[in-house]
UniProtKB/TrEMBL annotation:
Organism of provenance: Gilliamella bombicola
Molecular function terms from GO: identical protein binding; N2-acetyl-L-ornithine:2-oxoglutarate 5-aminotransferase activity; pyridoxal phosphate binding
Modified residues (N6-(pyridoxal phosphate)lysine): K252
UniProt gene name: argD
Compartment(s) where it occurs, according to its Swiss-Prot or TrEMBL record: Cytoplasm
Necessary cofactors: pyridoxal 5'-phosphate
Keyword Protein biosynthesis: no
A biological process from GO: L-arginine biosynthetic process
NCBIfam families for this protein: arg_catab_astC (TIGR03246), argD (TIGR00707), PRK01278.1 (NF002325), PRK05093.1 (NF003468), PRK12381.1 (NF009047)
Known catalytic reactions: N(2)-acetyl-L-ornithine + 2-oxoglutarate = N-acetyl-L-glutamate 5-semialdehyde + L-glutamate
Pfam family, one: Aminotran_3
Top-level EC class as recorded in UniProt: transferase
Keywords: Amino-acid biosynthesis, Aminotransferase, Arginine biosynthesis, Cytoplasm, Lysine biosynthesis, Pyridoxal phosphate, Transferase
UniProt name for this protein: Acetylornithine aminotransferase
Length: 403
């Protein structure tokens, strides 16, 4: 007999690297989710900024269904129409000339970092391999990407780390100037640090970093895995700064819930690559690319992108009502619907407590570190869903504050 599907089964059969909520979601529609008992939840988490168009968006379901009856997978021994279609959309709407498809943000970043080092070695010197990254950054869970990420807790304990990676404080241009040299191949950053507390880069910092990269013949790599694809109110966040990277990575919302990622770059940088230097079996598969094409068309529309700031304003208005009652938040961080609410010092290290209480009150939220509540809902979430979710969050906050 098949095992009964319960939360307890997770603890028996899944590698213990996660601590999921006690309920199991079984159905989603828009910004609402239902569990095994039929209880309804408002989703302010969006699968960690993945479900940018909500659950089971009808246009994505239709695209997936139609492609599922045509072609699922052929590998990269062959190309396919949806992959070429998606690549062209990305190129037409960004700085990029070339695209590489993978399956996750970590894989896109792995490709980006490998490309940066390979380009430097081919064009300049094999000793031009230093990567400058930033404390509190997060770039994925492969050994290379977790080493570039600026949080040792994710990379310690796995043996010798990839070498020639240096970390400095975010938004500190002088710190970058102190370590950059002719051996630096890349500076890697998130325009808005996701897991690191939703800290946004300042315009002066990004402009200064771009200038340093040009001066030292260093590639500027933007990780827009979380902050890209409409999340901050423009297709990609770099477009708000007037600073163009040399390489950009995209994932999460790119497929609207279907696993896919992309690395974008220029013809010049791509020209050092040749068949066999890098690859992936599943990257660019027709199912993922067909869904991502539809997601791209929906997200890259004026009504969706312009609606992000209106929804952010309503979120902050509702959070301020909570703040008036409980004096909980110190400031709001991030951009658009990559929104962080930093807790007052007396509630530091309690972000997870508020997350758990919110789940009990049937609203799904996230944290970004121990001191920031994170909200990454669907870009299409309705005003009524925001207000209902905030009513539930108010009850959760009251439980924690009065505990």
């Amino acid at each position: 007999m098949p095992a009964k599907i319960t939360r307890e089964l997770f603890d028996q059969v899944i590698l213990p690297v996660y601590a999921p909520a006690q309920f199991i979601p079984v159905k989603g529609q828009g910004s609402r989710v239902w569990d095994q008992n039929g209880e309804e939840y408002i989703d302010f988490a969006g699968g960690i900024a993945v479900n940018a168009l909500g659950h089971c968006n009808p246009r994505l379901v239709k695209a997936l269904h139609e492609q599922s009856e045509k072609l699922w997978h052929v590998s990269n021994v062959f190309t396919n129409e949806p992959a070429l279609n998606l690549a062209q959309k990305l190129i037409d709407n960004t700085f990029a000339d070339r695209v590489f498809f993978a399956n996750s943000g970590a894989e896109a970043n792995e490709a980006a970092f490998k490309l940066a080092r390979y380009y430097a070695a081919q064009r300049y010197s094999p000793y031009k391999s230093k990567i400058i990254a930033f404390y509190q950054s997060f770039h994925g869970r492969t050994f290379f990407t977790v080493s570039v990420g600026g949080q040792a807790k994710y990379s310690d304990g796995f043996g010798p780390k990839p070498a020639d990676i240096i970390h400095v404080p975010f938004n500190d241009l002088d710190a970058v100037k102190a370590v950059i040299d002719d051996h630096t191949c890349a500076i890697v950053l998130e325009p808005v640090q996701g897991e690191g507390g939703l800290t946004s880069a300042t315009p002066e910092f990004l402009q200064g970093v771009r200038k340093l990269c040009d001066e030292y013949k260093t590639l500027l790599v933007f990780d827009e895995v979380q902050c890209g694809m409409g999340r901050t109110g423009s297709l990609y966040t770099y477009q708000q700064y007037g600073v163009t990277p040399d390489i950009l990575t995209s994932a999460k919302a790119l497929g609207g819930g279907f696993p896919i990622s992309a690395m974008l770059t220029t013809n010049d940088i791509a020209s050092v690559m040749h068949p066999g230097v890098h690859g992936t079996t599943y990257g660019g598969n027709p199912l993922a690319c067909a869904v991502a094409c539809e997601a791209f068309d929906i997200i890259n529309s004026p009504e969706v992108l312009e609606g992000v700031q209106n929804r952010r304003a309503l979120f902050i208005e509702q959070l301020e009502e909570i703040n008036d009652k409980f004096k909980l938040f110190r400031q709001y961080r991030g951009k658009g619907l990559l929104l962080g609410a930093e807790l007052q010092p007396e509630y530091h290290n309690k972000a997870r407590d508020f997350l758990n209480a919110a789940t009990e009150s049937q609203v799904m939220i996230l944290n970004a570190g121990p001191n920031v509540l994170r909200f990454t809902p669907s870009l299409l979430i309705t005003e009524d869903e925001i207000k209902e979710g905030m009513r539930r969050l108010t009850k959760a906050v009251e439980k924690v504050v009065n505990a």
